[in-house]
């Protein structure tokens, strides 16, 4: 039995989605941020960095959400980790790319547009973060104009990681109408049954609620 340590306000959401797609039996232990949770001695014994998620699989303890997702996809995911070498490379490439190019400006834009208390928000910082997103979003748009999914012709772990990250788009104040291929792909990914079970309702409705779900293929 796999054990996932996380909470619904964390990157554990992408791991939960993947585990449900894999139909891998797992249990979840909710860990709050702060002294009684991620900074408790018990949790720090699992992850000295004091971050969630953490996955325990027998004697294996894996930290960092993208590493966890790639581990789960390779070990339990079947077609979610492609057998083709080129597609497998893209299954690594796009989650790593998203961490490098999307994650930090998305988080900054989301914080200053929506998540922080109003008195702590900076419209200037939100705007600057969105400006940094323009180039990587165009790269993603161009890719999804060429292929239906990030690693190849079928849905994979790469789509889970990047799509879950992109659920922050509305909170960040992004207009995905400017990126129609991204929006079609994102609605298609988030309309999957496992995504609907794994992700917070507001994260889903922010994207899927803006248009009719595409057929799942």
Explain the overall architecture:
The chain is α+β, with helices and mostly antiparallel strands. It contains ten helices and four strands; from the N terminus they run E-H-E-H-E-E-H-H-H-H-H-H-H-H. The protein has helices spanning 12-22, 41-46, 65-76, 85-101, 103-115, 123-146, 157-166, 180-190, 193-198, 201-207, and strands spanning 2-6, 26-30, 54-57, 60-63. A four-stranded mixed β-sheet has the order 2-1-3-4, covered by helices on one side. A hairpin with a 2-residue loop joins strand 3 (54-57) and strand 4 (60-63). Helix 1 (12-22) runs antiparallel to helix 7 (157-166), helix 4 (85-101) packs parallel to helix 7 (157-166) and helix 7 (157-166) crosses helix 8 (180-190). The longest helix has 24 residues, at 123-146. The protein is globular.
Report the structural category. Answer: alpha+beta
Name the overall outline: globular
Report strand order across the widest sheet.
2-1-3-4
How much strand content do the residues show?
Answer: 5-15%
Mean pLDDT: 94
Helix proportion: 40-55%
Helix and strand element order: EHEHEEHHHHHHHH
End-to-end Cα distance: 29 Å
Radius of gyration: 17 Å
